[in-house]
Amino acid sequence: MGNRLLQDAVEQLSSLPGIGKKSALRFALYLLKQPMENVERFGNSIISLRREIKYCTECNMISDSNMCPICADARRDRRTICVVESLRDVLSIEATGEYRGVYHVLGGVISPMDGVGPADLPIDQLCRRVQDNQIEEVILALSTGMEGETTSFYLYKVLTPLNVKITAIARGVAFGDDLEYTDQLTLGRSIVNRQIFSPEI
């Protein structure tokens, strides 16, 4: 490429998910044409995101404070917890407008191949929430691939002794699909038509 500074910028940009070298070069050249204050604002926003972001002490969502807006909203149904893998899943479910409970973000799924076991996820925290807050229903809204199913089954085993209703989103979501790639209508119907979870689902 010739120019070391440009090459370094392209390398950094292309390390982002879904960004190839050509797109990274296009972004870098675009930034070169922008006023310095715009580029500084862009860079500072990313640095601030990484340095200052907090995680909700209740549900593990990213937040500007110790409690996220959803957990802090008194209008939400605190008797129902929807368990998801990531922030993106929360955003997808919220976009449907069909769910008014609160969430529990695992930050991943059980994956022995990747060295992720139950102890690496905030599952004990979920159990404490169920016990301490008189939770009536836990909705399992994990992906339907092998790892998501394994995680759902494990959650079913540890939650069953707590006498809480355990449901799963209806199987309108195709096998292996992540929630973020499911259209809002299908996902909304899957939440509304959720079923009692059993290992055979």
Features:
elongated; alpha/beta; 201 residues; Helicase, Ruva Protein, domain 3; 5-stranded mixed β-sheet; two-stranded antiparallel sheet; Dna Topoisomerase Vi A Subunit, Chain: A, domain 2; 13% strand; 2 domains; 7 strands
List the helices and strands and how they pair.
Layout: H1 4-14, H2 21-33, H3 36-52, E1 54-55, E2 62-63, H4 69-72, E3 77-84, H5 87-96, E4 101-105, H6 123-132, E5 137-140, H7 146-159, E6 165-168, H8 184-192, E7 195-196
Parallel strand pairs: 3-4, 3-5, 5-6
Antiparallel strand pairs: 1-2, 6-7
Helix pairs in contact: 1-2, 5-8
Count of discrete structural domains: 2
The termini sit apart by: 53 Å
Order of helices and strands: HHHEEHEHEHEHEHE
The coarse overall form would be: elongated
Percent helix: 40-55%
